[in-house]
Amino acid sequence: MNAETQLKTLVLGLGNPILSDDGVGLRIAREIGERCPDVDVLEASAAGFRVADQIVGYDRLLIVDAIRSSETAPGSLFRYTPEDFQNTLNFSSPHDMSFFEALELLKEYRETLPSEIIIYAVEVQDTETFSENCSPEVEAAIPGIIEKIINNEMLPTGIYNV
């Protein structure tokens, strides 16, 4: 991951590996880890409080997950920051705390959190079929998505066609 390799980076892939397109975040994170040995990779099926403490001490966090917005074609790539989710914070129960709520809690305890957090979301089509394979449209987009993330080509928040 070019000049920014001095930053201690974690790529967090989210999803369910046996529900077709829902595993796309895991696949992308794993492949980035194989191509960029200077980054750490964590795969998780949930991103709430269970993984939040594992990001402590990193300079940079890249989260890769599936999204179903129904607004773009399968395989489209979205880029967000935690600030894009500020209005979704709703502290309820620690048993179902979202990742962003967990981040806020860790900040309150003055934990050393990544100074840069980027969320990459891939528009998916099928998250209900039991399969370890992504749909053809999502599968075809994976190489381009990996290149864009590795080369840090996506600077502003937005939607990117791959």
How would you describe this structure to a colleague?
This protein has 162 residues and is an alpha/beta fold. It has a single domain (2-160), classed as Rossmann fold (3-Layer(aba) Sandwich). The chain is 25% helix and 21% strand. The chain has four helices and six strands, in the order E-H-E-H-E-E-H-E-H-E. The chain has helices at 24-35, 49-52, 99-108, 136-150, and strands spanning 9-14, 40-44, 60-67, 77-80, 116-123, 158-160. The longest helix has 15 residues, at 136-150.
Question: What's the quick description here?
Answer:
With 162 residues, the chain is of the alpha/beta class. The chain has helices at residues 24-35, 49-52, 99-108, 136-150; strands spanning 9-14, 40-44, 60-67, 77-80, 116-123, 158-160. Helices cover 25% and strands 21% of the residues.
Which strand order do you get reading across the main beta sheet?
A: 2-1-3-5-4-6
Count structural domains.
1
Order of helices and strands: EHEHEEHEHE
Mean pLDDT: 81
CATH architecture: 3-Layer(aba) Sandwich
Secondary-structure class: alpha/beta
CATH C-level label: Alpha Beta
Main pleated-sheet profile:
6 strands, mixed
| DSSP strand count | 6
CATH topology description: Rossmann fold
- The number of helical elements comes to 4
* Uncertain spans: 88-95
State the shape.
globular
